[in-house]
Amino acid sequence: MASILPQFDNSEYAVGWIAALPHERAAAEVILDQEHAPPQHKHINDDNIYTLGSISGPNGVHNLYNCGKATAHGFEERGALNSPPRVLLNAMGALQAKHEKGGSTIPVILEAMYKDYPLMAKPRQGPGYNYQGTNCDRLFQPQYEHAATKKDCSDCDSENEVVRPERPDQDPYIHYGTIASGNQVIKDARKRDQMSKNCLCFETEAAGLLNDFPCLVIRGICDYCDTHKNDQWQKYAAATAAAYTKELLQITDAADIKSTPEVREVIHKC
């Protein structure tokens, strides 16, 4: 498990990782290689909660802070947002090439998470951060609405289920492209299909953030934006996104990050 270390100066932290929900924060914290003491000081108007730590890779050690943030309500289309930092785009391209040659280490990172934090894989109640099984991964025709008798889909008509090819393994797939960011949860398959042209998925936490400063949005997909939506896969999605983030930072050159504009110049807007 991550060990608590002495306090570092705030200026030592070069990467900001923003997690809006508790399970996203938990997944981000447990994949740290080292956890540090709390920040020395905060801006008087900064009400965020921080976890400090580091992730090590062959290209250096990245000190990062994990920032918790609340979400807004209501949906509106805002157009194009700021582009991600070039250093992260370059690292992402290098990671894609690495995956083409030798695959991803996400499964290894997840297994280490479950070993060090067994309660995350087998919680006392509710779904865990582990793979939830194909029986809980069901996609229905857009016109077929959820049977309201139960929260899960055990009473839904299998005749309306979309038949898909069997996956060769349980490892998560990695998709690259546009993520549509708004501030309303979508639970309508027909609306989803109308809005989903040229985008991979929908998310609700990053819209306001990207207006303030450029960042890279990494999301785990947990449902199909239809009336069958539930929380079964939320924690697993958070875990896979955190694992990918760790793999990305491990391949990112620490010197390149230090040469980019400092996030602390705008973090008071977070």
UniProtKB/TrEMBL annotation:
UniProt cross-references to InterPro entries, sorted A to Z: NLR-like, Nucleoside_phosphorylase_sf
Any GO BP annotation: nucleoside metabolic process
SUPFAM superfamilies: Purine and uridine phosphorylases
Any GO molecular function: catalytic activity
Name under which the protein is recorded: Nucleoside phosphorylase domain-containing protein
